[in-house]
Amino acid sequence: MQTTTQAAEADTHTTPLAEASQPGRLQSLDVFRGLTVMAMILVNNPGDWGHIYAPLEHAHWHGCTPTDLIFPFFLFIVGVSITYALDGARQQPATHNRTLLRVLKRAAILFGLGLFSALFPKFDFSTVRIPGVLARIAVVFLVCGILFLKTNRRQQLGLLAFILIFYNVLLQLVPVPGYGPANLEAGTNLGAWLDRTVLGEAHLWKQSRTWDPEGLLSTLPALGTGLLGLLAGQWLRRREVEPATRVAWLFVAGGGCVLLGMVWNGWFPINKALWTSSYVLYTGGLALATLAGLYWLVDVQQYRRWTLPALVYGVNAITVFFLSGLIPRLLNMVKVTGANGQETGLRTWLYDTLFVPYFSPLNASLAGALVCVFIWFVVLWLMYRRNIIIKV
């Protein structure tokens, strides 16, 4: 990781970071990233996993809740970010090899952070989960970075269409060895079989050990989500097109993707765990529309007073995501004696003491998650005030 420290801005409510004001940078993208990570922290840190409001849970299998939008939004943002980070290098083919090494290095760091998070605190390599959120982000960043440097928009669009159709054919037509006909069930679909065959059950999602929601095969359509971001970013960078026209066509493309995803849902259901082609289009369309709205408000109309919380999260997104997964485990390693005389982890004790007695079970769980979001906001705001940005 790399840390940069600059002079603090005089007015953080109205003035973006110096980096955000540079030509070609989208402050709306930082806002979008920040809102997405705030939502990710909220749903990943309930006070009690047994009591969660339905919109803050993933769909049981087929279907899509607001929580199911978070990860594809983040991968879409990765794609958009690549167009802004690598466009200068793309125009200079002589520097491509050096740029590819940088892309590979960043992807390796992201994958390593994900592996470290899975290992912590026991560091048991025999049962460590290899797939995961950071691992998938690493793969999507690596492949989309290469594609951005080496292909044009038409080729990227064609590859996106091929991936979505090919993945549909794989999951619905190719028989599953040892199970028979193709199917879309949790433990018996082609992707689950591939995960067990290549990685082994010990290295999959611990809640099942028979399949993984970030498995190998479903990473293929996840690349499609990143490609949608690449295409959106390149469209926004077309300075010869008026901002209003860019926004309008982003909304049109978003609406078209949502509609196509809903139609495709009829025979290839929207499903996050499988990352189905309909899911790519449906969530990608919503991401396109969200980016269009934020771009119009933040970058075109300059309505920025409300953006501080999102910016605070957005400029240090990977930092807060990584640390927010480790610190609850660290807290529960500290043992305290509860009112019942039994020893419990510090995080659990704090939740049982500060929230459970004063709220209903659902509201106590939600309050715990909201306080977690607020605590991280304070930490990140202090970093923001000092312009401390930890980059991978």
UniProtKB/TrEMBL annotation:
InterPro entries: HGSNAT_cat (IPR012429). Keywords: Membrane, Transmembrane, Transmembrane helix. It holds the Pfam family HGSNAT_cat. Residues 25-239 form the Heparan-alpha-glucosaminide N-acetyltransferase catalytic domain. Signal peptide: none annotated. Coiled coil: none annotated. The chain crosses the membrane at residues 69-86, 107-123, 129-149, 156-174, 215-236, 248-267, 279-298, 310-331, 364-384. It comes from the Bacteria. This is DUF1624 domain-containing protein. It comes from Hymenobacter metallilatus.
